Amino acid sequence: MNIDSSPDKAELGRRAGAAAAALIRKAIAENGRANIILATGASQFETLNQLASEPAIDWIKVVMFHLDEYIGLPVTHPASFRKYLQERFLAKVSSLQAVYLINGEENAEAECVRLAKIIAQHPIDVALIGIGENGHLAFNDPPADFDTEQPYIIVTLDEQCRRQQLGEGWFNTFEEVPTQAISMSIRQIMKSKHIICSVPDGRKALAVKNCLEQPVSNSYPASILQMHPTCTLYVDPESAALLHFNTLA
Hints:
Rossmann fold; three-stranded antiparallel sheet; globular; 249 residues; 7 helices; single chain; alpha/beta; seven-stranded parallel sheet
């Protein structure tokens, strides 16, 4: 795993978005198409803004998936990740070849099966992800399932995860935060050829420390990134504040 330490959150987003754009261009040049995964949440604001503003990306040759979506939450809700991506990314770029958004409003099990069939035909070139305050990747809260080969799974959200969503302002009360979601699995994320992981803010400092300095364990889901050969973790001074000084050397 590589680590890129930026002086502030805005620069973190610029670097991560620019790096993702370069990898997308490379995939298109080599394969005629790029298959990508996008994350959502507050950690991705600057990264996705930069990616959307990058020049010379032939978006009609890009196929997009995303990481997770709440079960039972309408697309009109402010916390909907489909709404987030439509407003913060898709509305800012030209039409993509295909966009496969997770629909958690109807039959969640059938949706997992539908998306599994599609993503099996689209090896992922670049995944843009974040790390949750509890160390989760996508909505794979600890102890995360490191073994399932299913690309998408139904998960139950733990209290810390749900409180993060409340704290970021997506919901008015804790009770409003859904208890279940459809999540891309750990193994599916790790199949990505390249991973760009954007993790700003001090509230993620312990998760970043555990990701880098704990042994790989499903108790620290993001620690699995230590095993990915081409993952770059983008941090700022706040999110890197608890790291041992040798970690960033």
